[in-house]
Design goal:
This protein has 437 residues and is an alpha/beta fold. The protein contains 14 helices and 14 strands. Bound molecules: pyridoxal-5'-phosphate (PLP).
């Protein structure tokens, strides 16, 4: 029997991959052949055919909500495939997409420099816009220097695999994002995973490493599936005690944590505690790219040795300019937008909890609505999508068996009325599928 839910399962190893299906799934054996009955089907065809059948089957069951094309934005509302939906599957936490200052900066850069660059940064691809962008990030993060890669994914992949060489050890939280996991897999050192946010386990693992080994501890600052916050104070102490470097991924904490949106160091009042400060430029900052901020020596090392940087083209001028202006807007408007975001998250989470929903460990605008089984998650998603809410499910093994959920991200662009409307739909859906009474 074809498992028409299988393509929605993101990862076979329980590795978080941001709820996105990965190609790592084992394809089931084909029941019929592509090349004719009885023909031997090669392994590539098997994989490709299995995915084809799964997506077709899921579409025909009206359960496929990936790749919906948005053709118009109206604040937090989007127009897609002829319908207007309130967006809860966005990372635009402070609602900066379409901010006039950022759009104007991007347009001016395209007018002046065109749409591309001359290649990789280290050769002819660096514009003054790139230098300004990296200086702005260094200042925002209060570090000497910053290096920008072409995506957040590449930033983790290239940085971890460059830093962690033969004989080194990397200690990665079990709930870390797939890009970190992939960086660890690519690295030549020893890859160790510690239990999620469990500092006793982290210490146990650190003790196993030889004293002389280079040690890197790495985690998401805010975990992308559950919205909980990494225990920076305890991890910082352990890193100092065991002479380990600390790298945190601030994809979901920039703009979100701290009263001014400066992230996890502001949240814990621990500025300067992270050795490699990683962030993405595709979430609160509405562009694309990722950065590492740190000492001038660290960044110089990465600029000359990180293959994902050295051998990949520079960001387009419009993006570099948008990112720079995005950080300036964050400095200017972060406090007020963060206040609204916090208010909205509180309204949403307390409304869900009052209705009887389990919202897991969240301490942020990433709100998991725990529903247990995949069937319930898919049925709830369908009800929400059919009734004006753009939200997507997260299913095992991306998350533990029995912890399927809808992941709803609140933003500062939502109004109190939007949140009330969404609560009404989620509650109705929850009742319909039996998640709440
Ligand atoms: C924690 C985390 N790190 C890294 C990334 C990758 O960033 P990007 O999408 O900018 O490549 C993501 C993406 O969602 C993420 O959630």
């Amino acid at each position: 029997m074809i498992d028409h839910l299988a393509h929605l399962r993101p990862d076979p190893n329980g590795i978080h991959s941001d709820g996105i299906p990965t190609a790592a799934l084992e394809a089931p054996p084909l029941e019929s052949t592509v090349n004719g009955v009885g023909d031997q089907v090669d392994p590539f065809t098997q994989k490709i055919e299995a995915w084809w059948r799964r997506t077709q089957e899921t579409k025909s069951n009206d359960l496929y909500y990936y790749f919906q094309a948005v053709d118009a934005l109206e604040g937090p509302w989007v127009h897609t495939e002829g319908k207007r939906k309130l967006m809860f599957a966005t990372y635009s936490y402070l609602g900066l997409i379409n901010h006039p200052r950022i759009v104007a900066a991007a347009k001016a850069a395209a007018d002046k420099y065109g749409t591309g660059t001359h290649g990789v940064r280290i050769l002819g691809g660096t514009l003054d816009l790139h230098a300004r962008m990296e200086r702005t990030i260094a200042e925002f993060t209060r570090r000497e220097e910053a290096i920008v890669y072409s995506s957040g994914y590449v930033t983790n992949l290239a940085t971890v695999s460059t830093i962690v060489g033969r004989g080194d050890w990397v200690f990665s939280d079990r709930w870390n994002h797939a890009s970190i996991v992939d960086g660890c897999l690519l690295a030549r050192g020893k890859f160790v995973r510690f239990r999620h946010n469990d500092m006793d386990d982290l210490e146990k693992q650190l003790r196993r490493a030889p004293e002389s080994a280079g040690k890197l501890v790495i985690a998401d600052a805010v975990f992308s599936m559950d919205g909980d916050i990494f225990n920076l104070p305890a991890a910082f102490d352990l890193c100092r005690r065991y002479k380990a470097r600390l790298m945190l991924d601030e994809a979901h904490s920039i703009g979100v944590l701290g009263k001014t949106g400066h992230g996890i160091e502001e949240h814990f009042d621990m500025y300067g505690s992270i050795d490699l400060k990683m962030g993405t430029l595709s979430k609160t900052i509405p562009g694309i790219g990722g950065y590492i901020a740190g000492s001038a020596k660290l960044v110089t090392y990465l600029r000359h040795t990180a293959r994902g940087f050295v051998f990949s083209a520079a960001l387009p001028p419009a993006v570099a300019a948008a990112i720079t202006e995005g950080f300036h807007v964050l400095e200017d408007e972060g406090v007020e937008r963060n206040r609204i975001l916090t208010c909205n998250a509180r309204q949403f989470i307390s409304g869900l909890q009052a209705a009887g929903f389990d919202t897991g460990l969240t301490e942020s605008p990433i709100v998991p609505i725990m529903v247990g089984t995949e069937e319930r998650a898919l049925a709830m998603t369908k009800y929400c999508q059919d009734n004006g809410i753009f939200v997507l499910p997260v299913l095992p093994p991306a998350v533990k068996e029995g912890t399927a959920r809808l992941r709803a991200n609140v933003t500062a662009a939502h109004t109190a009325e939007d949140i009330e409307f969404a609560l009404g739909v989620f509650i109705q859906a929850g009742r319909l599928v039996g998640v709440i009474d």
